[in-house]
From TrEMBL, chain A:
This is Tetratricopeptide repeat protein. Pfam families: SH3_3, TPR_11. Keywords: Membrane, TPR repeat, Transmembrane, Transmembrane helix. InterPro entries: SH3-like_bac-type (IPR003646), TPR-like_helical_dom_sf (IPR011990), TPR_rpt (IPR019734). The chain crosses the membrane at residues 142-163, 175-196.
Automatic annotation (TrEMBL), chain B:
This is BatD family protein. Residues 1-26 form the signal peptide. The chain crosses the membrane at residues 501-519. The keyword Cell cycle does not apply.
Length: 261, 647
């Protein structure tokens, strides 16, 4: 019996180590991006918006995924007169932190420059709750939580089943709670992944585009889409994307004009 | 009337001749007699003109006698100057309209004049008069005879007044003498090219005209040329007949679309003043021409005789007359598509472009003006603003457009100035790309593109950051400042949920569980399961041992036989009753068996067999028969017990 207990401890230890290596290994903090970020902020303060936006964009392209980075990039693009890029960055920032009032405010200002802008319907309360819950952890946080709870659940189950001294109803209920948490974390991790990889929304990046009735250059124009308009992409061919506006209008425009979120 | 035209023709042709001659031989003096025709019909009027060129100090002029002719009209006197090829010449001419009285050949002697104190004589002319059809002319003796010469004849510009003779059709007369004409310089052109349309009123009658309908010029952009007010008449000849011409409208037209277009007609209401000749009762003969007496009058000899209109035999009549011009068809070709530059936006003509910026170095507080001036000939008034790619650091406003179009220029020329006000938003060096302007040149039938140089603008940061468009709600349009905190700089480079590690780590505890289960199984086997198996296979083990015993029996090894049989029985009991070998005793076996309700012969046989074996081992006596009996007993006991314990 003692043998078996020892082996579980060893398993846990290796598991934790693996977690540390995978989860936090990439956290090796490099001061270099921070320096560039601050340089860009300085350029912004000197009204050199295009240059600042360029640096922010570089950092984004390198894969840094910070709401502040997107926010600043949005501000710089807006000041440099690139409404489409600005709105794209604000939307990205909002995806990462949906309750950021500053981002919402600046996005609203940028949207004033969008011709034909249609306000989206606000989310229903339970959608808001879900969204808030969703942002309790980062996407990988949910996955890590998943693992932790699963391990705890297994450990609890083993204790409950094989150690006669641990066999009590508190541990059993604890196990049920762990199981429920594990399920929740699995669902959230999958949901976060799906949301982050859902590219059905996009921002129109060029101005004065006429949406067509069919995916064909010769078909008739239906309405005009302004730069910075947020659209839902509901269908796509090789060249054309079917877009739906917040007010329900839909038409086809060339996919090259849309940057998917 | 016809002879009047002839006179003019003669004069003009003469003038031409004079000019030509004068070009070679300036200031040459000439005195000539010309006739409109050397051969005339009996009733045909003709003209004779005496022309004195470059004569100075003309003190007298004596026409020859026209004894064989009737003077129908004249003398009409002309005096003037002509400048031809830079040479100036003066002339003085007298013209008579004559009608022959007899058939035959006549010589009209030349006229005499005193020039510079010298008598000069013009050449005589020979006239051959033939017999002609007299009937046509009989009722009205010569159409031109109806009106007298105008008193003030200047340069031959005199126009006949409207005299309506008896029996003359008013409408016909009006139709012949008043009409409208539209002149266009071309009828086939490119879209956007210029045509000039001139609406002219031709008249030979005194008229008070007003334009009632002006053309709308559908499909054109029209630019009117200002006309002098009051309108000035010019003279023009149509089929040799002089008309007074009033220009009603002169318009520069630029077709806005291609296809077949039509210039609308213009409508003019005229009040034509006609002079009507009323019959004069004072005259002896009603049918006689009222002017006959007059021409026979001695005063006739005087070229400057009294005005005919002082006489009471005429009255005025104002006749309304409405005329309309013909519509003109214009074919407009669309501009060629191939070779059309991207920057082309409708300019047709011949243009120049300059683009300037007012400063190249400024701060974000100031404004920059980019001025594009397009000048030249063509549809200046229709020029669209050239598209300018303003870099994103500027806020661009719609250009201010000012025109400077030359008044009454034809073709339309001038310049159009586009002023783009640019508000720099962002410090740094910015380049405004070259301004491009394209136009279609109808002369060379191709597109031309003009390009300025690009402008490099240095922008420094101003004191205050410019505010965006105000929304009048506080702070509404102010961007929230940038985030400047220290960021964690995490990269979303991988999804844990998609990495194999996630699944490995999920499987790991399951493997642990599996390992523990296997371990536990093995432990259980060691304890419970091994006994169970022994119990299950007890019979087989015992029978195997008995087989060995049977071999010893055959060989006659007594001791081994009893040992093996005893071991088989005890082993069987140990296995079957789950009693460890060490604890086996007769008493324990009896208790276990009685606990399982196995009593009677089975137990008795068992203990008898055990006793037998023990006895044989401790007091060996070779008895083959007994050994055989013991063996059979052992087989029976074990199989009986097996049956009993199965239940």
């Amino acid at each position: 019996m003692r043998n078996y207990r020892k082996s579980t401890i060893i398993f846990f230890a290796t598991g934790l180590w693996v977690l540390l290596v995978t989860g936090f290994g990439s956290r090796a903090s490099v001061p270099e991006p921070q320096q560039r970020f601050e340089a860009a902020n300085n350029l912004y303060n000197q009204s050199k918006y295009t240059a600042a936006a360029g640096i922010y964009q570089e950092l984004i392209t390198e894969g840094y995924n910070e709401p502040s980075l997107y926010f600043n990039a949005g501000n710089a693009s807006y000041k440099a007169g690139k409404t489409g890029t600005a709105i794209y960055n604000y939307e990205k920032a909002l995806q990462l932190s949906p309750d950021n009032a500053a981002v919402k405010h600046n996005l609203a200002i940028a949207n004033q420059k969008v011709s034909g802008y249609v306000q989206e319907l606000p989310l229903v309360f339970f959608q808001q709750w879900w969204q808030q819950l969703q942002h309790l952890h980062r996407a990988n946080g949910w996955a890590i939580g998943c693992l932790i709870f699963f391990w705890l659940l297994v450990a609890g189950f083993l204790l409950n089943t094989y150690l006669p001294g641990w066999k009590n109803k508190f541990l059993r209920w604890g196990n049920y709670a762990l199981g429920a948490l594990f399920l929740l974390y699995v669902i959230m991790a999958v949901d976060a992944y799906l949301i982050a990889n859902d590219h059905s929304a996009g921002i129109v990046m060029s101005s004065n585009i006429r949406a067509k009735a069919a995916p064909d250059d010769n078909s008739k124009d239906t309405f005009e889409v302004g730069e910075g308009m947020k659209v839902q992409i509901t269908d796509a061919t090789n060249d054309f994307c079917k877009i739906t506006l917040a007010d329900g209008k839909s038409g086809w425009i060339a996919c090259t004009n849309i940057k998917r979120l | 009337m016809m002879d009047r035209y002839c006179i003019r023709k003669c004069i003009y042709s003469l003038l031409l001749c004079i000019g030509l001659v004068a070009g070679a031989n300036a200031q040459e003096f000439r005195f000539t007699t010309t006739v409109s025709s050397n051969t005339v019909m009996m009733d045909e009027p003709f003209q004779i003109q005496f022309m004195l060129e470059n004569g100075t100090n003309v003190s007298s002029f004596t026409p020859p006698s026209f004894k064989d002719f009737d003077v129908l009209q004249g003398p009409s006197q002309m005096q003037g100057q002509s400048i031809f090829n830079g040479r100036r010449s003066e002339y003085y001419a007298l013209t008579y309209t004559l009608q022959p009285k007899h058939v035959g050949n006549f010589t009209i002697a030349g006229a005499q004049a005193r020039v510079n104190g010298n008598m000069v004589k013009s050449n005589p002319v020979l006239i051959e008069v033939k017999k002609g059809n007299t009937q046509a002319m009989q009722p009205s003796p010569g159409p031109a005879s109806g009106y007298p010469p105008h008193r003030a004849q200047q340069g031959g510009d005199d126009l006949p007044e409207g005299v309506l003779k008896k029996g003359e059709d008013v409408t016909e007369k009006l139709r012949k003498n008043i009409f409208l004409k539209v002149d266009v310089d071309k009828t086939n052109l490119y879209e956007g090219d210029q045509i000039t349309a001139t609406y002219k009123l031709y008249t030979r009658l005194p008229t008070n005209s007003s334009v009632t309908k002006v053309p709308a010029f559908k499909g054109f952009s029209a630019k009117d040329i200002e006309l002098p007010n009051p309108p000035q008449a010019t003279e023009e000849r149509v089929n040799g007949v002089p008309y007074k011409v009033f220009t009603i409208r002169k318009t520069l037209l630029f077709p806005l679309q291609s296809g077949a277009l039509e210039l609308d007609p213009v409508e003019v209401d005229n009040q034509v003043r006609l002079v009507k000749v009323v019959s004069n009762n004072n005259k002896k003969n009603r049918s006689h021409d009222p002017f006959e007496d007059f021409f026979n009058d001695p005063a006739f000899k005087d070229p400057f005789f009294d005005d005919f209109f002082n006489r009471p035999e005429v009255e005025y009549q104002d006749v309304p007359y409405k005329i309309q011009s013909n519509p003109i068809k214009i074919t407009v070709k669309p501009l060629p598509v191939d070779g059309r530059p991207l920057s082309f936006n409708g300019a047709v003509g011949k243009f120049n472009m300059t683009a300037t910026v007012d400063k190249t170095s400024l701060s974000t507080d100031e404004a920059l003006t980019l001025k594009v001036v397009v000048s030249g000939e063509g549809n200046v008034n229709l020029l669209n603003s050239p598209k300018i790619d303003i870099p994103s650091g500027f806020e661009k406003y719609d250009p201010k457009v000012t025109d400077d179009i030359e008044k009454n220029s034809n073709p339309l020329s001038g310049s159009r100035t586009f002023e783009y006000v640019l508000m720099p938003q962002e410090a740094g060096d910015h380049t405004i790309p070259a301004v491009e302007f394209s136009f279609f040149d109808p002369a060379s039938n191709g597109f031309k593109t003009l390009r300025s140089t690009p402008f490099v603008i240095h922008i420094s940061q101003g004191k205050r950051i410019k505010q965006d468009k105000q929304d009048f709600s506080v702070g509404k349009n102010e961007l929230v400042k940038n985030d400047t905190g220290i960021l964690t700089w995490t990269k979303q480079q991988s999804w844990l949920i998609r990495s194999p590690w996630f699944y490995i780590l999920l499987l790991l505890p399951l493997l642990v569980v599996a390992g523990i289960v296997v371990y536990k199984r093995r432990a259980d086997y060691k304890t419970t399961n091994a006994a169970l198996l022994k119990h299950r296979y007890a019979n087989k083990v015992a029978l195997k041992r008995l087989e060995l015993a049977a071999r010893y029996l055959k060989d006659g090894k007594d001791k081994s036989f009893y040992e093996e049989t005893s071991r088989a029985v005890w082993g069987y009991l140990s296995n079957k009753l789950k009693i460890p070998m060490a604890d086996l005793s007769k008493q324990l076996v009896q208790d276990k068996l009685s606990a399982r309700q196995i009593n009677g012969s089975n137990t008795n046989n068992l203990f008898e067999l055990i006793d037998n074996c023990e006895m044989a081992l401790y007091a060996p006596a070779h008895n083959n028969h007994k050994m055989q009996g013991t063996y059979e007993q052992a087989v029976n006991v074990i199989s009986n017990l097996e049956d009993a314990l199965k239940n």
